[in-house]
Predict the structure of LIM domain-containing protein 1.
Amino acid sequence: MDPSYSASLYFGSCTRCSKAVYGAGRACRAMGHLYHDTCFTCSVCSEKLSGKPFYSVSGGIYCENDFLYSGVHPSPEVCNSCGYLIMDMILQAQGKSYHPSCFRCVICRQSLEGQPFTVDSDSRVYCVSDYHKIQAPCCAVCRTPILPTEGSTESIRVVSSNRNYHVECYSDFIRFISFRAIYHNITGETTLCQDSIPWSVALQDSSVLRCLIVDLGLLALFTTQHSLLAWSPVKQALQSVLGPLNRTAYCFTTALALQILMQYWQPVTGAPCLWSVRHAPWSIWFPLLCFTLHFICWAIICSILMIFDYPELLGLKQVYYECLGLGDPLSHKSPHAQRFLSHLRHPVCLELGVVLWLLPALSLDRLLLAGTLSTYLALAHSLDKQDLAYLCVQINRKMQLLAQPHRGIADATDRDGSNHKEK
C-alpha cells in the first residue's frame, strides 16, 4: 500500500483534542475511544501510554506508577511496614494492614505469617523470643532478662518490693526456705510442679534428674562444710593455724556454702507434687495458715537471734580479746551463759522443722531439701541431756508455783475448821 495513501486515511476525531485523526501510525484506540498517540498520555506525568499498561479513574488516564502512588488508587489499604499500597493479598494484625512479605520481626526479620507475634507500643512487630529478650524485666539478683522456658510463651517471675526475680534467684534464706515455697499457692504466679505428669515419666526425665543431682550436690556441700568444721580434729587444726580467726573462718565458710546452696538451687518443676492443696476453700485458707505459722516461727527465731552476742558469734570478740591478751571471751562467762547457745538450739531446730515441712504443696526438690536438713539436724544435734535436765527442773518449778495457791486455800480451810471446834 502506498504510504502516502495510508497517512491520508481519516479515522475520526480525537476524544481528547477533538481534532481529526489521519494515518494509522498516529492513531490509537482505548476503552472504545479514538486518540492521537500524542494525546493518549498520563494525566499526571504526560508519559505516552500507547502500547503500555494504563488505568482509568474518574475520567482520568494514568500510568501504572501514578495510579499506584499518586493517591488516585481507590484502595485505602497501605502497608504499615513499607508504606506502599497493597494490591493483592492483605494481612491484618492489631488493626494494621501489611503485605504478607512485609510482616516480619523487626529484629531477626523472620516471617511471622501464621506465627505467634507481639507488637510494642510503637506498633513494631516482634517474634515472641526477640520481644522477651528486649522487653522482658531484668532479675534484681542476676541482672539477666526473665525469659520463658523452652517451649513456653509465658515467663514466670516473682515480684517483691517492686523488684522482679527469677524463681530460682528469689533466694535470701527466709524466702528460700519458707515463703517462696508457699508463694505460688497464694498468688498463682509461679508453678512448682506438674501434677499432670506421671511419676514414672517424671523420674525418667533427664531435666528432673539433672536438677535433683545438682540439688543433692549442693546439700552435700553445705552439710559437709558444716560438719567438717565442727569436727574436733579439724577445729583443733584450724585453731592451731588460724588462732582467734578460727570462729570467723567458720562463719564465713558457712555463709558462703549457704549462699551457693540458695543461688544454684534448681527447682524441679517437671514432676508432680507429693501433696498439693488445690481445692476450695482450703486452696486459699491453708496457704494463708502456712504463711501465718511460718511468720510466727521466723519471728521467734529472729527474736532469739537478737539476744546473741554477735561480736563473739562472728569471731570479732575473739580477735579483740587476743589482742588484749585476755584469752577466749567464753571463759569470762558463767557456766549458764556458756551453755546459752546449746540451750537455744532446740527451739530453733523445732521451728525450722515446722517451716521445712508445713507447706500447702511439697515438690520433689522441696522433699529433698526438707528430708536432708531434717536428717542432718536429727543426727548432728541430738537432745542435750544437760539441757533436758535443765528443762525438767524449770517445768517442775512452774508446776510447784501453780500448786502453791491451792495449798494456801487448803491450809486456810483447815485452820477455820480447828477454830470452829475450839468454840
Summary: Confidence is low (pLDDT under 50) at residues 184-190, 419-423. The chain has three domains: 3-69, 91-135, 171-382. Residues 91-135 form a domain with the Cysteine Rich Protein fold (CATH 2.10.110.10).
